[in-house]
Amino acid sequence: MSGPTYNFAYLDEQTKRMIRRAILKAIAIPGYQVPFASREMPMPYGWGTGGVQVTAAIIGADDVLKVIDQGSDDTTNAVSIRKFFAKTAGIRTTTRTADATIIQTRHRIPEAPLGPDQVLVYQVPIPEPLRFLEPRETETRKMHALADYGLMHVKLYEDIARHGHIATTYAYPVKVDDRYVVDPSPTPKFDNPKMNRSEALQLFGAGREKRIYAIPPHTTVTSLDFEDHPFERYRYDAPCALCGSSEGYLDEVITDDRGGRMFVCSDTDFCESQRTAGNKGTMLAEAPEARR
Amino acid sequence: MTTLNCERPLLAAEGLSKMYGRIIGCRDVSFELYEGEVLAVVGESGSGKSTLLQLLSAQLEPSAGRVVYTMRDGVARDLAKLGEAEQRFLFRTDWGYVHQDPTLGLRMAVSAGANVGERLMAVGWRHYGRIRGAATEWLDRVEIDRDRIDDVPRTYSGGMRQRLQIARNLVTRPRLVFMDEPTGGLDVSVQARLLDLLRGLVFDLGLAVVIVTHDLAVARLLSHRIIVMKGGEVIETGLTDQVLDDPREAYTQLLVSSVLPA
Question: What ipTM describes this predicted complex?
Answer without folding.
Answer: 0.86
